[in-house]
Every structure is written in structure tokens, then in C-alpha cells.
């Protein structure tokens, strides 16, 4: 089972002679509970079925026309136990927040309390349909409305758009609102400024919206070069997209001065709110002069994320941009009823730029986020930020004696500690450290981002990790880094103990094998 099949999909598994358990090769390729799982096509056969279906009358008329299939589809038939076992065995090879410390933290995998899941699975939220009459989904509309009110209070902003489906979608929403505001006053502008310390999606979003993107350099301390930004401002600048706290893990202490300068030339300030987890309950972005900011519900309010969705990225808007919010949005009538303002309600629409999506959003994400907020309360959310920052600084100060911390002297970091590969020897790299951490039982941290640090390693512990869990990670991290500093050749072949040895990641991305060839 360990040999590649004809399509060559299966890379090398850990070999028997590398010291792993020190035992002989097995007939199945399994190593006790580390199972060598075949493809579904290798488990079942195309000429059998796992369910009993009535015979099909092939002479019966259909509406398929020329789209009718002329050859067997070739899918394998599997029993229910075979199907369940296959996906359960595969799930055992995943790493998740339920298994251990996740160094990517709020960027990808913040802890999602089980209470959130219980609330999201209530039939009144889980079983509703987007086309249901509004009178029958008043509770769901109230959840969305109440969550929006919380987001406005926490950010100090007067309006919110709840329909964007993810962070990048929210970025686009904010930039389109900015463009609509400029167009409404007949002020065509072409440029969006993006600091080097901003998230990588920011320039992509601005370019997608039709703007020309120009970079603003960072200072040696890892913050926006305010002098360079002010020197570039002019009548052609539509907006500045700035991440705060930034991707170097630092709070932009001159944010208010930046916002005032941008507003003085008629531009708007877009803040990437992906790192809001570090300041929630502590800082209101609206007080800093922000005009639009998306909030990743999974990064700050614990909703699940990854694998293509579902997601949610609400956007809070300043008074200047509120009239241009996308449709639909929720209002509460004098009698307490909730209703959606749709395009046909033109007397309430204003100059909105239109819709971001067909329906309002992902109900499960809203329900989980509101549950999280109500569970914590205002004081609890403040503690979330404080504990996240404390944990990140603990990691930073515990590693900076052996690992390059380029901004360690720039003041306390926020919820993420940033390191580089400056002192590694013998050609070892950040990738080797990441693979070594897999052998130690950890999913690697964010690597090679931000680009302003060579061989970047970005560690985000979040607030839910205990000191014991962080100490255990630091011990493993220091051990792997020490190997890199000592030039340990063995690190170049890591991981040794994972279900698969090191993969050709470039080849997998550029030449993926997506079709099974039996």
C-alpha cells in the first residue's frame, strides 16, 4: 500500500529504517494507529454500489437532451461503514485547535467554544432559508442586528455592513464604498497607498477595484514611515489601506496623525481589521480616524474558518461612508419588528454602491460570534486582548535570546511575535524549522510573511493558551531553532515522523494531480 499507484499521487511515507518505532515494515503499510489510508477508488469498485436503488427505466423521457451521459460515470460504490471509516481515518491526520497549540493563532485557528456550536445548531438558526418571509425569521434578523450593534460599539463606528463573506470580501466592500463616495462628489482618484507593513490582500483588493497601488516604506522600527506617506499624499490619492496592529506585530502609534493627513487631502482611511483581536475592548478604531474596517469574525470572535469557508467579514463604516454601505441592511421598525432594506426600497436606499452578495451572509457565523460576545461581555473582551498580547510577548521575550527578533526593541508586540532566520547556518532556512516543528507535534507558524523580514516566522498564540501550553511550545521551538543555529543537516530532511515525508510543495502547487488514473 505504500507504493505509488499509477497516477503517482502518493508521496513517500516514513521509512522503517529511520528510527521511527524501530520496528520492521508491515504488510499493510500501517504503523499501529498511524494508518496508511488508500483513496476511495482503491477501496471500492465502480461495478458495485453500497445502496439498493430501484431499476432505472432507460426508455423513460428526460429533459437532459444532449446533456445525457453516454458512458458510465466511473464512480466507485462504497458501503456506509467504508465511507465513514475513510473520512474518519483521514481526519486523524489533521492538526487542529482541538489537538494542541496552534502557532498560527487568530490568523487561522482561534478556539471556538462548544457553546457557540450549540447555539448555531438551534433549528431556528440552522434550518432557515434566505428566501423565507421576513416575518418568519425575526429572531435571525435580530441576531444579525444585535451583532452589528456590538461591532459598532466596539469600534466606535456609526454603521456596519454585515453581508461581506470574508476578510478580503470585506476589504473590497470598504474600497467600493470609498470609490462610491469619491464618485458621488465627482472626484475621480486613481491611487491607493499601501504600507509595507500591511496585509498582502490589501494591494490586491485595491488593484481589483481599479486603483493603482503605491507602496509606502516602513521605518527600521517596523511601523509606517509617516514622513514618506505625507510626502506622497495629494489630490490623486483615494485612500490609504493600513493594518493596525500591523503585520510586524506592532501598534501604529502615529495612526491618528496619518488619518488626519489623509483626510486633509480628501482621502479616506481603510484599516485592515484582521488583527483586531489584539485591541478589542482596548482601542476603538473610529477614534483613530478610520473610515472603513473589516472584521474577521474568526480572528476576533472565534467563528470557524478555513478550507474555503464559510466565513464572515463585516465592515464598519464612518459617518462619511455610511450612506454608501452595500445592500441589504437591517432596520428596526417603530413596532420593534426587523426588516431588510432591499434595492426596491429606494426611498431608504441612498447612494449605496449595490450588493456584495445575493443574500445577507452566513447565519452560523453571526450566531457563533454573538454568542462569543455575549459570553464575554465588555470586560471579558478587554481581557481577551490583554491575554493575547501577554502571551505573544511571553513568546517574544522567551525566544529573542537565540532567535532574531527584528522588532524586539520597538516596544511590546501585539498578539503576534515576529522572528527571522538571520543567524541560521549551513544553508538551513525557516522552512526547515517549520518542518522540524511538525516532528515535535506542532503545526508550523506563519512563515515567510511579512516580506519585510527575511525568513519570517510569525507566531500568534491567542488568549486561550495556558502558560503550560506555551512553555511546552517554547521548549520545542527552542530545540528546533538550536538545531538550525548549529547547522544540523538532519533538519533538512524533516519531518521524519509525519504521515508523509517532506513534499515538493512547488511541484504540488504548479503541477497538481487532480484526476485519478487507475
Structural summary, described in words:
The N terminus is likely disordered. This protein has 15 helices and twelve strands. With 518 residues, it is an alpha/beta fold. A seven-stranded mixed beta sheet has the order 1-7-6-5-4-2-3, with helices on both faces. Helix 3 runs antiparallel to helix 12, helix 12 crosses helix 14 and helix 13 crosses helix 14. The longest helix has 37 residues.
| SS field, number of helical segments | 15
> How do the strands of the widest beta sheet line up side by side?
1-7-6-5-4-2-3
What is the straight-line distance between the termini? Answer: 14 Å
Please give the radius of gyration in angstroms. 26 Å
Category from helices, strands and their pairing: alpha/beta
Q: What is the averaged pLDDT score?
A: 89
Secondary-structure element sequence?
A: HHHHHEHEHEHEHEEHEEEHHEHEEHH
- Beta-strand level of the residues, as a percent range? 5-15%
Low-confidence stretches: 1-7
Question: What would the principal axes of the Cα set say about the shape?
Answer: globular
Fraction in helix: 25-40%
What is the oligomer described by this structure?
single chain
Biggest sheet features = 7 strands, mixed
The count of strands amounts to: 12
Amino acid at each position: 500500500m505504500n507504493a505509488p499507484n499509477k497516477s503517482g499521487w502518493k508521496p513517500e511515507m516514513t521509512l522503517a529504517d529511520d528510527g521511527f518505532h524501530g520496528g520492521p515494515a508491515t504488510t499493510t503499510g500501517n504503523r499501529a494507529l498511524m494508518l496508511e489510508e488508500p483513496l476511495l477508488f482503491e477501496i471500492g469498485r465502480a461495478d458495485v454500489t453500497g445502496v439498493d436503488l430501484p431499476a432505472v427505466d432507460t426508455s423513460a423521457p428526460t429533459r437532459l437532451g444532449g446533456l445525457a451521459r453516454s458512458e458510465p460515470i466511473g464512480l466507485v460504490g462504497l458501503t456506509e461503514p467504508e465511507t465513514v471509516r475513510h473520512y474518519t481515518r483521514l481526519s486523524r491526520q489533521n492538526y487542529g485547535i482541538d489537538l494542541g497549540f496552534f502557532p498560527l493563532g487568530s490568523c487561522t485557528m482561534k478556539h471556538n467554544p462548544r457553546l457557540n456550536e450549540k447555539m448555531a445548531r438551534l433549528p431556528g438558526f440552522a434550518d432557515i432559508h434566505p428566501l423565507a418571509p421576513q416575518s418568519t425569521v425575526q429572531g435571525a434578523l435580530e441576531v444579525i442586528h444585535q451583532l452589528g450593534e456590538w461591532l459598532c460599539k466596539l469600534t466606535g463606528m456609526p454603521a456596519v455592513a454585515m453581508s461581506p463573506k470574508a476578510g478580503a470580501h470585506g476589504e473590497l466592500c470598504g474600497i467600493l464604498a470609498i470609490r462610491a463616495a469619491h464618485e458621488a462628489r465627482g472626484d475621480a482618484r486613481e491611487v491607493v497607498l499601501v504600507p509595507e507593513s500591511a496585509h498582502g490582500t490589501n494591494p490586491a483588493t485595491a488593484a481589483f477595484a481599479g486603483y493603482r497601488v503605491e507602496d509606502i516604506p516602513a521605518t527600521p522600527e517596523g511601523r509606517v514611515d509617516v514622513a514618506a506617506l505625507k510626502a506622497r499624499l495629494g489630490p490623486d490619492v483615494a485612500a490609504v489601506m493600513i493594518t493596525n496592529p500591523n503585520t510586524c506585530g506592532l501598534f501604529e502609534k502615529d495612526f491618528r496623525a496619518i488619518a488626519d493627513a489623509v483626510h486633509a487631502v480628501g482621502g479616506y482611511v481603510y484599516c485592515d481589521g484582521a488583527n483586531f483581536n489584539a485591541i478589542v475592548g482596548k482601542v476603538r478604531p473610529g477614534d483613530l480616524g478610520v473610515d472603513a474596517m473589516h472584521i474577521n469574525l474568526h480572528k476576533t470572535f472565534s467563528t470557524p474558518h478555513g478550507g474555503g469557508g464559510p466565513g464572515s467579514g463585516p465592515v464598519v463604516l464612518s459617518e462619511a461612508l455610511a450612506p454608501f454601505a452595500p445592500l441589504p441592511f437591517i432596520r428596526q421598525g417603530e413596532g420593534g419588528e426587523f426588516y431588510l432594506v432591499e434595492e426596491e426600497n429606494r426611498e431608504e436606499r441612498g447612494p449605496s454602491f449595490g450588493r456584495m452578495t445575493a443574500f445577507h451572509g452566513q447565519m452560523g457565523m453571526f450566531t457563533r460570534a454573538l454568542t462569543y460576545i455575549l459570553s464575554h461581555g465588555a470586560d471579558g473582551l478587554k481581557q481577551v486582548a490583554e491575554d493575547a498580547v501577554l502571551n505573544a510577548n511571553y513568546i517574544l521575550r522567551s525566544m529573542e535570546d537565540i532567535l532574531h527578533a527584528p522588532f524586539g526593541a520597538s516596544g511590546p508586540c501585539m498578539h503576534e511575535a515576529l522572528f527571522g532566520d538571520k543567524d541560521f547556518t549551513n544553508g538551513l532556512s525557516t522552512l526547515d524549522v517549520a518542518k522540524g516543528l511538525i516532528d515535535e507535534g506542532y503545526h508550523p507558524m506563519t512563515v515567510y510573511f511579512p516580506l519585510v523580514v527575511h525568513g519570517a516566522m510569525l507566531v500568534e498564540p491567542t488568549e486561550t493558551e495556558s502558560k503550560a501550553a506555551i512553555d511546552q511550545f517554547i521548549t520545542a521551538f527552542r530545540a528546533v531553532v538550536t538545531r538550525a543555529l548549529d547547522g544540523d543537516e538532519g533538519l533538512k530532511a524533516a519531518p521524519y515522523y509525519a504521515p508523509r515525508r517532506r513534499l515538493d510543495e512547488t511541484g504540488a502547487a504548479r503541477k497538481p494531480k487532480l484526476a485519478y488514473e487507475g
